[in-house]
Amino acid sequence: MDIRTRFAPSPTGFMHVGNLRTCLYGYLFAKKNGGTFVLRIEDTDQERYVEGAVEIIYSTLAKAGIEHDEGPDKDGGYGPYIQSERKGMYLDYAKDLVAKGGAYYCFCDKARLDTLSNDSGIKKYDKHCASLSQADIESKIKSGTPYVIRQNIRTEEGGVSSYDDMVFGTISVPYSDMEDGVLIKSDGMPTYNFANVVDDHLMKITHVIRGMEYLSSTPKYNLMYDAFGWDRPLYMHLPQIMKDATHKLSKRYGDANFEDFLEKGYLVPAIINYIALLGWSPSGNQEKMDMAELTEAFDVKGVSKSGSIFDEAKMRWLNAEYIKEMTPEQFAIVAKPYFDKSKVAGKYDYVQLSKLLTSRIEILSDIASKVDFLEEFKGYDLALYDNKKNKMSGTVALEILEKMLPLLQSDNDWTNDSMQVVVNNFIEQGEYKKGQIFLALRVGVTGSGMTPGGATEMAELLGKAESIRRISESIERLRGL
User: Fold this and answer.
1) 182-184/148-151 β-pairing
2) Catalytic site includes residue 185
3) Which of 251, 288, 314, 403 is catalytic?
4) How many CB atoms are located within 10 Å of the residue 360 CB?
5) Are 419 and 411 in contact (CB under 8 A)?
6) CB under 8 Å to 33, separation ≥6 — which residues?
7) How far apart are CA 381 and CA 127, in angstroms?
8) Which pLDDT tens digit goes with each residue over 194-216?
9) What is the pLDDT of residues 61-114, one digit of tens each?
10) Which domains does the chain possess?
11) What is the pTM of this model?
């Protein structure tokens, strides 16, 4: 079998991680099996269309490294696949379905439809127009009476539509639970329920991969395949991604937006890696995988039936693992926008800063909190020198800094290594504990008790002149205690 999968998003806003996971699994399944991955924009619902959303779809897939084989922006094949541009085609297929008995014309107006409800108050179409004669139908069409085309679902007693899902097994839905839904709206546009069936057939999609919310509606799609005399595709429905134990992630409420994660400073490979693990477990214990490794490892046997909770703390950890593997030069490139928005913008060598940060941050937006102190030296709290465990105080710090200042001033190299020699020689004199000396230097140079690097690393970054100035200023402040 020539495997063909598709991603068929509606342009209704940002790219929710649930949509991106569906896209990713379709891509991985196709590539793992040497198949074709198709992109199709399902924009038939013009009321929900959001300006710019199509561009977001293209941009997200490009950033994620998910390249479609057919569809928008591709030459040849069947593309581009944009449903609104294929509007005229669907009506012909709907009329063919009418001729085959799988659909019928419906002329009921809104007023009548509003009166339909069962004993529980649930509205369900009553097949009123399914028994119209051909003469009545032709007369109404000729007179210009607005109409829709509805699916004709057989509701004989005991009738059931069943299919086998690759994840959830056999799914069965009684005909009596289904409604004769609209396939072609009064404006001639197809509904999702019809267009996706026609398009999947024409595009020769062999495996339909989508969220489990379509489990119960798939049987009515299969009835259309059967009525047309078309082969049904195979189905892989995916478990929900949950916000917590009881709430699913919701695109409507802005949960888990791909672009927002990029803005926070997550790396694209880490996002894709984490999303792949939401509802799927590789056969081994490896968690950190690039796209090639994900493709090789992906197997539907690892897809869970249970929902997965989106754990941002886990994604932060995974992102940190990717950052740790970057060279300072690589990190400086992706981190530049965050350095530029911090208080140190343009004042320090970003590669030098990156050497201190790659093992100490989880996401790029952590950068400001790690480096802003470099520009917040003036007026720092002298209580930072107090540490009962090390018997440390401002008085002890003053003694240390006064003795260390001339030693550091004599260091002409001013590198972390050369300053380490100076400090170690001072430690060996045995007058003060190692912890006392490094605490005094750290606070005296940076004005902070927590820094991304050691005291001498920070002094190298600041430069000799600035470091000596700060130590001198710290001494003057301590003398005033």
Assistant:
1) antiparallel
2) no
3) 251
4) 14
5) yes
6) 3
7) 78
8) 999 999 999 999 999 999 999 99
9) 999 999 999 766 666 555 568 888 888 899 999 999 999 999 999 999 988 998
10) 1-72+239-325 (3.40.50.620), 85-238 (3.40.50.620), 328-479 (1.10.10.350)
11) 0.88
